[in-house]
Design goal:
Elements (H helix, E strand, L loop, with lengths): L2 H26 L5 H27 L5 H40 L14
Helix pairs in contact: 1-2, 1-3
Length: about 120
């Protein structure tokens, strides 16, 4: 397979990894535990490594070349600064909607209730 085509595949993988990063970032907004955030970061890097490894085996017969990582890097950067801003704003709107639904679905304590027991 030609080097340009291999570069294009890994460029697309970089875009996919950028989207996956934004999904993990969205997941972070729901968790407040630092240990879970740490393990989600580790999981993200394991997924990135496995996808890169599998694609390099499938596309380039396991031959590792510098332009493979450059393709992933440029795909990630292009996604992050062009598509990522649009998608992240869309995800933030979805997250805001989810937070509103969660807020209204919880039972409320009536703090300002005037029905206090009389002595």
């Amino acid at each position: 397979m030609s080097s340009i085509l291999v570069f294009a595949y890994f460029f697309l993988l970089g875009i996919i990894l950028g989207l996956l990063y934004d999904l993990f970032k969205l997941f972070r907004n729901f968790i407040a535990n630092n240990a879970l955030i740490f393990f989600s970061d580790i999981l993200y890097f394991i997924i990135c490594s496995l996808l890169t490894f599998v694609l390099s085996i499938y596309i380039n017969f396991g031959i590792i070349r510098g332009f493979i990582f450059q393709g992933e890097f440029f795909g990630f950067i292009i996604y992050k600064y062009i598509f990522g801003r649009i998608i992240l704003k869309f995800m933030e709107k979805i997250l805001f909607g989810i937070k509103i639904v969660r807020f209204f679905s919880k039972p409320k304590l009536f703090i300002f209730n005037n029905n206090k027991p009389k002595k």
